[in-house]
Records
---
Amino acid sequence: MKQFILTQKKPVINPNIPIEADVISPDIFAKKSIEEIKKLIIWRGNRQLALEEIFSLSGEEHAGDSPAEIEILLTGELSKYKHIGEKMSEGKITIKSSIGMHLGSLMSGGKIVVEGDTHDFAGANMTGGEIHIQGNAGHYLGGSMRGNWRGMSGGKIKVDGNVLNECGIWMRKGIIEIAGSATMFLGMHLHRGTIIVHGDVIERAGAEMTGGEIIILGKLHKNLPSFEFKETIDELPIEGYGTIKGPFLVFVGDYAERKQGKMFLLKKKNEHLID
């Protein structure tokens, strides 16, 4: 792969003003020389900046014709940089930092690795590809952007840490796997797809879900009254993932909706929900 290394020259003067950096994508870099890449425009508030004003760039003289051949490596204090990897279809982005909002939103392919935390809306409305967050994720992971009621509809998101509210909201396809815990409204409005949480979930998981599956291997502290316990199963096969050993308590809901999905809760952590 042709690697391009972007190193932040120095922290921005006012960190409260985010930087719109959707041009940092293999799709945008493709077919450009490194000199053309340096001149790409990013926005800081209402001010336009060339990429080279913020980053030192090194790499190949020319990116080549295909985004699939390109890897972008970002280093610095990047927690206020938004929209990186937006709409990317191929290639790879590695971020050696925490990152701001809308990481990988609308992406259809390729891979993004974050060696830190992400802010809200990571993977929003993505249709394919893979995001691996090695820290924690914010609100609306794999969900829908404002004004849109269709969330993630393909691909895979993996989080090594915890996630905040409304993870997978309006999700329609794909897999989200969370190694840590989740807070409120996990899988709200879930239509299809799979959410796996290895840690605990506070409450209101699956609110208004109409399909799909939520698997919780930790403790669900409080279940919604509109879910009904159906049965216990020994193991759970998941398409595109493998089989998880149980036993699991199977709940169906949300009966506040016309259609229902399923929640699979590890029995030894959740027997308080059927007492």
---
Amino acid sequence: MKAVVYNEFGGPEVLHVAEVDKPVPGPGQVLLAVRRAGVNPLDYKFRSGEFQIHSPRPLPATPGLEAAGVIEAVGPDMHGFAVGDEVLGWPLTGSYAQYALASLLIAKPATLDWDRAAALPVVGETALRVLALLGLRSGETLLIHGATGATGAIATQLAVAQGVTVIGTGSATNSDYIASLGATPTTYGEGLVERVRALAPNGIDAVLDAVGHGTLPDSIELRGGTERIVTIADPPAAAALGVTFSAGNVQDSDLPELAKLAEQVANGQITIALSRTFALADAAAAHELVESGHPGGKILIDPN
């Protein structure tokens, strides 16, 4: 089968397409014929070697933390799924490939297209996890740094649906998009504290940082402390400032909530902004776009 592989750590140029052996599902696993793979910032952090200290990975490696596809084979003791089922979830092997092994999966709603299905697992789980950590209640005010990003946009919509007032940061050109999500837009950068205080004179109850780039000191000032601030983007600053950093660790118990979210996306209650879909051979260009910090929505890989 064809897969994107890197044999050394480095820039996007280390990615190339190679012929590799088709994996065989073991106990509790399925073989997934990948229809789409999602591209995430963690993919290039693993590829660059930046995350070797946190989560060492052997070489050669295939990137890709999420996928949607059709089950082609089922291993022993894997219950609840059958050959031909359309699913989405987190592969055990890299998803920038024609086939991948997987065990943490949910059924794909029939009306959910492959692009949105593959775009959902990582950002959906992240948004659900962080909102649960923040313990938001109806009537509270949440500040989201990076409301235009894939995770920030889903978190915004979910929080608004809970009756939470959301203030979302982004560039001035994205103000209309943030407002369309149900949030009050404001721009990031110098003067943020004053702008947010003007929009929320009674204060901010919680903060989700989905961008990093030095937003935590302002967040602490707005909160008057470090409580109920969660970052998914700035672990070094979180450790230095005493703020909660949250990273993904998906469990079976998380799957029912993701399945509910998938239905909401399928029926249009929650939207996911999509940017571009790249072929396997163009994986380096996909990484370059994600690394730019301005992908304009979720980036996907079509391995077929």
---
Amino acid sequence: MLSVNTNAGAMIALQNLNATNMELSQTQNRINTGKRVANAKDNGAIWAIAQGQRATSQALNAVKDSLNRGASGIDVAIAGGESVSDLLLQMKEKALAASDTSLDSASRSALNEDFKALRDQISKAVTNADFNGVNLLKTGATDIAALANSDGSSKLTVAAEVMALGGSIVTVAATGSIGTVTTAAAMITTVNTSISNTSAALARLGTKAKAFELHSAFIGKLQDSLDAGVGNLVDADLAKESAKLQALQTKQQLGVQALSIANQTPQTILSLFR
């Protein structure tokens, strides 16, 4: 039926053209953003999953920062502990020399002064083994508890290894000396014990430092995997979108032509009245 009031062909052509324009707009948006799911309107379920994974990935940045700070604190403690160990070795040498009964008093006094200087240097090394307020070697030191996962429910801990004079590790007293043969002989045993304790403490710190290093590497890989997973969910296949864009642009042009043809149909009615 020919009608000037209703042009069914034009309406169908317009519907098809609108659908094509909508698809074209969606494809252009994917090309512009590089994402198949750029917001919740594109795909609510996928967007929500991706947002959850993004939150986890970003939280891992805080974990890496915490691990790096902890690792730095351990490295400084190891450096300080190695200095203490080296000083103890020199102190043993002085104590052994002072225990020689054939040594004259002037020489023993000189060795004692050297010994006390080395002893005091241990206190300086312990005090200076500080990183960002963290010192595992000083008296009253607190353990390091670095973040180990994205929700903070797990921690990687490092126990303090107090190497202050007169402690459980460095048993040499803050007033220890080798001024006599007797004190020098006794000091050899004390220094040997301190050397053994310090070596064990450094071994524990070294093990923890390696654990921090390995966990930090794991966190980096985990974050990369999460980011790749998010990309798989939301990123657009630009090769596919490019091909689709070409097809839709052609389809749009054909749709415009079809609508133009359909709009000419009512004009044929005029020929009936001539």
